[in-house]
Amino acid sequence: MARRPGPKRASGYDKRVALVLQGGGALGSYQAGVYEAIADSPFQPDWVAGISIGAVNAAIIAGNPAGERVAKLRRFWERVTTPPRWAAWTDLAFGTVPELRRNAGATSAVLFGQTGFFEPRPPEAWWREPPPTSFYDTSALKGTLESLVDFDRINHPDGIRLSVGAVNVRTGNFAYFDSAEMPLRVEHVMASGALPPGFPAIEIDGEHFWDGGLVSNTPLQYVITKVPRRSRLVFQVDVFPARGRLPRTLLEAAEREKDIRYSSRTRAGSDVIRTTHDLRHNINTLLGKLPPALRDTPEAHSLYEFACVTTMDIAQLIYRPEDEQGQTKDYEFGRATMEERWTHGRADAQETLDAAPWLAPMPPEVGARTFDVVGDRLRAEGRHDLA
After folding, report:
1. How far, in Å, CA of 242 to CA of 387, rounded?
2. What is the pTM of this model?
3. How far apart are the first and last CA of the chain?
4. What CA–CA distance (Å, rounded) separates 11 from 18?
């Protein structure tokens, strides 16, 4: 497929770029499509952060040279969406009926797991002592990641920074594993995606960790607030829309509940981050205008701790499918569905890159801006149920 060149950076726009990826299981192929478009643009991330499947995609991006990242993402998503032999007929039987195809894919995942990712524990495992603490074994994911991710590259000082979030099972505290602060291993990535009770906790240095999505399903705040801060363009890729249609059936209600639970209040969170950063920015401006006598007061010193000279542009990319996907959508790993989501992500990212609203001059009183190019278009078209 021929690719269009992305926009050129405007003169003077020199912000670093970060990519933050939400958790969402099978929905993560949308993120892979988003990255495929970004990979052909001038806006190359030097920092990728993810939760759950976002951590997996982020690790594949950070753990490969630029020219191989899309291919490695493709290899991962094709591997984990390879159906069992017995199920190959389902694409032929249900291929023209998306709802039936998706239901068949989700049922297959529950009963048989996914190639290179997870598999059900055998019946005899439940008779052993102690019994398992999860329904599935994720040993296959370890092998898949080790074959696709070069952790020496991630841990090299000149590599792309990688941050993944998980929850300490014993303390309940959220933790970020950050290659800028520690060497990362495959276990750190697996811990970020260890969603109970489906997947087992992952042990790291004597502690056990579960999926970061239990506490926060997006790493945006971590990237924006981590010290030392730098001015950035952040591509925020969410696979659970915070806003959606009013459910009309019980199944639609179940899907909507999952969207709300895992969206991590995307818009509200972004609004708080933007307001906070505007405040930091204006504190810095105000301090600069104070006479020396006032700047040297304890109150001014206290304010200085909250001041910041950086500015942030946040470009939101949110998976908004035209039709309901069902509450099983995050574990429906059908190949055809994966391809649809990948294509959707690439199209949304290309539309956003073509518009590139962050290239417009930033007002001096503003510390952070958010952009939702696709959402703005949908609202202009009157499709408020999606936007």
Report:
1. 9
2. 0.92
3. 29
4. 20
